[in-house]
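Q: Hi! Curious about what Fibronectin type-III domain-containing protein looks like structurally. Here's the sequence.
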Amino acid sequence: MLRKIFVLLLLTFLATEAWATHIRAGELTAVRISQSSLRYRFTLVIYRDTESSIQVGSNGIMNFGQGRIIRDKPALEAASVEGRFIITPIGHQTEKVTISWEHTFDGPGVFVVSYTEENRNGGIINLGGATSDSIPFHIETVIRIDPGLDVNGTPQLTIPPIDRGCVGARFIHNPGAYDPDGDSLAYKMVVPLQDRGTEVIPYLPLDDPSISKIREDGGTPTNFSIDPITGDMIWDAPEFAGEYNIAFIIEEWRYSELTGRYELLGYVTRDMQILIEDCDNERPLLEVPADTCIEAGQLLEAVIRGTDPDNNDILVESFGGPFRVNSSPAQFFNLPDMSQDRDFRPQPAEYLFKWQTNLSHVRRRPYEVQFKITDDPFDPDAPNLTDFKRWNVTVVAPAPKGLTANIVTGQSIELNWDNYVGGNLNPRIEIYRRVESYDFQPEHCNVGIPANSGYELIDDVAVSETSYLDDNDLRPGVNYCYRIVAEFPLPEGGTSYASAEVCVTIPLDVPTITNVSVEATDNTNGEMYVRWTSPLEIDQTLFPGPYTYELIRYTGQNGGSNRTLLTSTQDTVFTDTGLNTKDRPYHYQVRFYDAGNNLIDSSSTASSVWLDAFGNVKSIDLSWTADVPWSNQVQSSPYHLIYRNRTDAAAEDVDNFVLIDSALVTSQGLKYHDDGSFNGIELKEDREYCYFVTTRGSYGNPIIPAPLINDSQKICVQPNDEEAPEKPIIDKDPDNGKEIIGPDGPLLIVDNENCDRLSTEPCGFANFTNTLNWTVQDTQNDIARYNIYYSPTGAEADYELVGTSTQTTFRHTGLNSIKGCYKISALDRSNNESELSDPICFDNCPYYELPNTFTPNGDGINDTFRAFDQPNGKCPRFVSSVEFRVFDRWGGTEIFNYTTRGTGEPNLFIDWDGRDKNGVELPSGTYYYTATVTFDVLDPSKRKQEFKNWVKIIR
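A: Let's find out. The predicted structure is below.
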């Protein structure tokens, strides 16, 4: 009996020892190691308590999330890259243990890769205290493999997850994360895990009142948070000494050109341990430079300084992406001896950050350099206090060099430049153009082209190109200025400094419009002042004068709507009257004839200035546009003038317009915010204020006088107007329509022109346009625009905004189906939106027709039983599915069937070759068939049609 008891006790001891607890913290990261396959290297880092005799991996489980699982230490080591666990002592009864494995995924997808091991170390206060040694340790990494998002690896963590702090003192930790691919990182607190998808149940966050309810400044409650952008984890402040564990994830996001938004690529989980002790100590201090940019190829040097208020020795360490790059990594030296040993040094201490940058370091996001300072208290048993400071360094690509511009023809300019120094990194060369020179210095992080500079991107070319022909709507008399920029590919991205500017002026050999200015605002008696120059640089030997000019007007700021010949004259000024300048802009063009009445050429079109106004709380926002050949954002005349009525103290003077301010359009754009600041009288909310804007522009050509002065129409708006407009009514023919029951009630389907045109379109045609017209009672006279909502099904939940219009018409273009319903709302200048109009719907026009004979004799003519198509003028239209069955001539036995349901590439034409279901040719004769065709339509009465008939096989 004694022997049995002894054996039982021994087995109990061995079992307890075998499952002894030891894990403090850890993480699992990944790097893609192949450009041609989906092969990744996963690195596990575990921090263990050395007071335990159990080694990492003894009962570990590595799960790659795709069926491959490795269990226990022998198998984990055998499958690893190193063949063993690598152990590094780091002090404070802690060892760092690392091991790596490689794994190839068999295809795209989202994979949860995890490592699980029993158990955590004991005594973790917020994980159950004494029972924490029964909780498994589990960490996860999520990898998204998506061909549309290119090669990807996880964020890498450079600062260890074991840290120490003092009772009552703010604790701060940063993982020193960086992403080798240059992706955006985001941080989020999570609950520690004990298995896949299983949170630790007794976990308490560090701001739980039972854990801590104090702050360093003596206030309450405790602050426990992580900055989602920087990753600074703050616990302000610990209340009790002991060990604590927390977890957070580092997400990586990448912009997708396919979706036009940032996509989540995955995340890494950090499970860390914080050791809090009683101490009497003050935090050391760091001094780091301001965030900076440096041009690739230059040497970056900066001095870092550390101090300690207790005069303790200090240790300053540096982490981050610049130290991890493959080419020319950064260095961190002790001063003045230029050593790189990391040790405690007397305070104050200085250090030198040194980085010889090169083009491979270029990326859009800044590199984060983390500096960590740690003090060494005089009491050897006291814990160290730490602090972190971040320094952001952006490596910018150099500007392209050698840009020149030369006129090729009157409508084209050739650009040339030198080979770009970063060509091996495959950037695109972006080409920007504007009218008139715009001077700015592309330096000090001012990369690319400044916003509101007036430069527009006109094209981009491969980096191997060193020339470009600009023939995109160039206009005589205009001074065109160019700059080029190198734009680096994602995921790292990056924009170079802009090149030097180069300008060239096309000779003025046609008339040039200089003014389209609103002289009077009215809905019937509006007036427009139009002025143009003669063709100042024309060859009068070839084209003798005097010249005759035809002035043509169009409605709107561009396009060809309502073309009207206004006058034929030898003058260069015209006042256009009888217009609705209150509700619409206009644009003009001049054609000119020589002395022999020969048409020579036409000017570019130029529009009036269109002013929009939107009412806010005690303020009004203005914005304006003009489609003109000159520039309205020129440094020679950078201000546009803002005029307003009701500038008297009582805001009752509606007739007099006063210059209240100017807008610096070269930096702020064509907009202005009026809150009454100009005279200190805030806007009243019970009345309308009216405005017009005077623009000032230039061709940048010294022979055309500048500035070009043009006024907008007058527009009136009420601040804080809360009354919505009346809802619009969509036009429809009362005798043309069919009411059906839709998903959420009655719907009115009306005919449109699309169905009539299908008789002349090929079978695969799918490019439709639905046109809407509507009316509205603008009782407040303040409707600014209309919203157009579309639902492909007619269901209320499916309506989405598909466009806006300032006119009472809208064309919904590029549709692959006619089917859909529309609702319209009106918005006033205070952004109040009316109720939605009653819906109006268009429906597809289904068609399907089958023949009654075919000749499967192999001559290539009528060899299959096939639905009619061109050139018959009859095509299957808007067919969703076809179910086809063939019977013997008595209709009793099924001898063949075909369905498009569940097929990847359905053949809606059927193309039956005259064989039975076993592939045996059927003899000539007559057979019975049924075809059930389902159409993509709103009208349920047309959704499914059944065709029954006879078909004759002739061989």
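A: A fun detail: The mean pLDDT is 91.
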